[in-house]
Write a structure and sequence with these properties.
Phosphonatase-like hydrolase; Rossmann fold; 8 strands; DNA polymerase, domain 1; 2 domains; alpha/beta; HAD_sf
């Protein structure tokens, strides 16, 4: 029986029009590196400082502390600008799925490759709230600010368990739109799902050790693992 569903944010629960991809690519290219589409996809979903560091190196630029810090500031500035011009929205069916899960006694946590300074304003722009009552949107939010390392390490999932009082990882279902989301779920020992609402295709997600590849979060309440 599943007691906690841990979901990624951009591309999984939130439609930002691909802004995260564009911001990450732009930040790295402005530092003089080239960005291959495969490399960009590989590092999506990870901690963005780690992503910038590795994409710089893959793109032929030595990732000094200064370059990485500057790249991360450019990434955040681009996100802020684009989110103001084109506000993100909930992916179709997500809000209904979250309400169904929580009404059925399942805790819901959001995990993200963003830090606090990006994640919480994004949630506020959607009007999403955090709390234990059913009037809230989710029970907990875990960002890269909360852990020593982001995906594919399972630490955000474990912190979500801690925040929601879930002791058994076998009672956790994880879903995300990137390969590292699926990998983190498996590394945690949880039920691990890929969703096709981001830029990764079915073959990319299915290549990971997974339990389900879903069209979207809206399918989660109907999974056999959620049967009460």
């Amino acid at each position: 029986m599943i007691s906690l569903v841990a979901l990624d944010m951009a591309g999984t629960t939130i439609d930002d029009g691909g802004t995260v991809y564009d911001a990450l690519k732009t930040a790295v290219e402005e530092a003089g590196a080239t960005v291959a589409a495969h490399d960009l996809q590989t590092w999506m979903g990870t901690d963005k400082v780690e992503a910038i560091t590795n994409l710089l190196e893959l793109g032929g630029v030595t990732p000094t502390d200064e370059l990485v810090a500057d790249g991360f500031q450019r990434f955040r500035a681009h996100l802020k600008e684009q989110y103001a011009a084109h506000p993100p929205v909930a992916i179709a069916g997500v809000e209904e799925a979250l309400k169904t899960l929580r009404a059925n006694g399942v805790k819901v946590a959001l995990t993200t490759g963003f830090d606090d300074e990006v994640a919480y304003p994004l949630l506020s722009s959607l009007g999403w709230t955090i709390g234990a009552g059913l009037e809230a949107t989710v029970d907990a939010v875990i960002t890269t600010s909360d852990v020593a390392a982001g995906r594919p390490f399972p630490y955000m999932i474990f912190r979500a368990m801690e925040a929601t009082g879930v002791a058994d990882v076998r009672e956790v279902l994880v879903a995300g739109d990137t390969a590292v989301d699926v990998r983190a779920g498996r590394n945690a020992g949880a039920v691990s799902c890929g969703v096709l609402t981001g830029k990764a295709d079915r073959a990319t997600l299915a290549a990971e050790d997974h339990d389900h590849v879903l069209e979207g979060v809206f399918e989660i309440p109907g999974l056999p693992e959620l049967a009460r």
